[in-house]
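Thread amino acids onto this structure.
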């Protein structure tokens, strides 16, 4: 192909696609980076709250405004609170994680046999309907134990799987300033602050608010229509 033909092809392609490319560059990327985003969740570390195959909505304006594609903030109007489900970067390998905040700066966190202690006081747990396990992967439905954890103003479901080895006791540890302690709701199958330590404030990039869509990646990618457009606690 001659140089003139190549240049002509590039010119025609640019004319056809320039509007789309400009929209992606100046609208889609900044919006996803700084305002709102959506993420597929591939693992079960947040079972039973978030399931493998959930597409979750992330509010990136929940705590402040960031410069697109960076962790630098233009404004900051709030900090994550205990019970918030957040998107953060792991201090271990910088992978993108979805976890729940269980400790804020100054809090003393401890766990004894899967019972969370906050500032020396055991968090209350109440029974949860076993039927709510029906959406879990088939290999977990009859092996897991479910409970409602009364963490501050955000009671939420948590899960344990007694038959697998897990880190069910740790601490106490004090959360340092500018850091947070995060955990998965699937307490026996989550790599979280029990393993990689505290998460810096700037590494928390948004709050997960709900499920946009969901497919069961453990069972032939069947859609879970009941989870579409559902809020998360």
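Threaded sequence (233 positions):
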């Amino acid at each position: 192909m001659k140089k003139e033909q190549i240049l002509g092809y590039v010119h025609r392609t640019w004319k056809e696609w320039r509007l789309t490319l400009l929209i992606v560059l100046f609208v889609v990327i900044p919006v996803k980076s700084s305002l709102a985003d959506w993420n597929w969740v591939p693992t079960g570390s947040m079972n039973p709250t978030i399931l493998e195959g959930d597409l979750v909505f992330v509010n990136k304006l929940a705590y402040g405004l960031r410069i697109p594609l960076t962790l630098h903030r233009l404004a900051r109007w709030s900090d994550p609170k205990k019970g918030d489900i957040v998107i953060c970067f792991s201090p271990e390998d910088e992978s993108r994680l979805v976890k729940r905040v269980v400790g804020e700066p100054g809090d003393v966190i401890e766990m004894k046999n899967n019972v969370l202690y906050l500032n020396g006081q055991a968090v209350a747990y109440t029974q949860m309907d076993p039927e709510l396990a029906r959406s879990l992967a088939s290999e977990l439905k009859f092996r897991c134990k479910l409970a409602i954890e009364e963490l501050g103003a955000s009671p939420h479901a948590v899960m344990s799987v007694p038959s697998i080895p897990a880190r069910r006791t740790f601490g106490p540890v004090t959360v340092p300033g500018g850091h947070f302690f995060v955990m998965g709701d699937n307490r026996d199958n989550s790599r979280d602050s029990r393993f990689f330590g505290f998460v810096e404030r700037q590494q928390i990039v948004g709050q997960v608010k709900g499920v946009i869509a969901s497919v069961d990646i453990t069972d032939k990618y069947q859609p879970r229509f009941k989870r579409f457009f559902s809020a998360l606690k």
